[in-house]
Amino acid sequence: MATATITDPMLPQPYSVRQVVKETADTFTLTLEPSNGAGGNRFQPGQFSMLWVFGVGELPISISGDPAERDRLVYTVRSVGQATHALVSRDVGGAVGVRGPFGTGWPVEKAEGRDVLVIAGGIGLAPLRPVIYEVLHNREKYGRLVVLYGARSPRDLLYRKELAAWARQRETQVLVTVDYGGLGWRGHVGVVTTLFKYARLQPARSLAFACGPEIMMRFVARDLETHGLARENIYLSMERNMKCGVGFCGHCQYGPHFICKDGPIFPYDRMRPLLEKYEL
Amino acid sequence: METLERIITEHPFFAGLESYYTNLLTGCASNVRFEKGTYIFKEGEEANEFYLIRAGKVALEIFAPQRKPIMLATLDEGEVLGWSWLLPPYQWRFHAHAIETVRAIALDGKCLRTKCEENHDLGYEILKRFAQIMEQRLEATRFQLLDVYAIGK
Questions:
Q1: Separation of alpha carbons B43 and B89, rounded Å
Q2: Which of A179, A201, A239 to mutate to test the interface with B (most CBs of B within 10 A)?
Q3: pLDDT digits (tens, 9 = 90+) for B17-52
Q4: ipTM score assigned to the predicted complex
Q5: What pTM was computed for the model?
Q6: What does R_g of chain B's alpha carbons equal in angstroms?
């Protein structure tokens, strides 16, 4: 009979909740730390974990923290169902099981020497935040950092203080827009693609990372192409119903790919034929 | 000192336009400024101009009964405001609200319509540029209508 080892990808590791921060009315950021006090949580920006809420269920959640902070794992979670609600309702000190990190990361090494274009929609900013940390920690390795962020309304914006802090960094441009602006809002109103014209893009020397609802990424990728970015320089974070996290179960199959193992990050030139297929 | 013709030439909306045409346009142009909080035009008013925004921010607003104004989009530096001057009945279809102090070049629509009728090459150039803006805004409106972030709301 096979026995589980510490490296078994199906075996959750015990973590406890260090902090819960309310970002918006329904979105929370959880900081977890290993219950056994061990450190060394290495992950690549863009990877995800499977989080067990014992007695309720398991969820695939992208890691949204700083890769340099190895004593913790940070996740931003939108409470939309029973399991996510149970997860964000954990008290400080509460137990959570963690499997992973899984999946491919954003190819930040390919962005070295180039401008980095980060395009996020809604909670899609969470899986991209580690890229922003990585670029800001290693500023000399990269060209301009351009963050374009769209949300439904001003009250749905994540990480508002950080957005303002990033905008103050050298060679960094942060533009935020909302689809529906209230009368008190004095920023941009319009979909995220309307920000491209303000971004001073240099397509030939840029690498773009986009994350958000799939239909938003389709619009974004198409517009980036119109602005002159090559398809192989546009990366998307795909999402399907991930269960095992390691390509065993097939729940997240998308055409010939398993999103959990082959992705979730894919170049647009590989995703484009699938994105245009009905009901896939 | 910047001349009107140079400002028009350098505005993204007229990028690449031949100097013969920018010279024709300059005859219909004037510098304008709108203080923060004022309305540049309102729905139903006669549409006799369009604006090349040089600085500031304009909100396009629409009113519905018993509701606060709805902000549909914002336009910033480098963008063009208004195409109702181009097509009958030449009336604005929404409000344009200067939410920051706006500096712009106003182009007289009546003057321009006359020049376009007299010179169809100029008319075609102008129409091509407005058609592109209309296409971009239609695409953005379709995207906005999808309300892609609304799952679970």
A1: 12
A2: A179
A3: 999 999 999 999 999 999 999 999 999 999 999 999
A4: 0.87
A5: 0.92
A6: 16
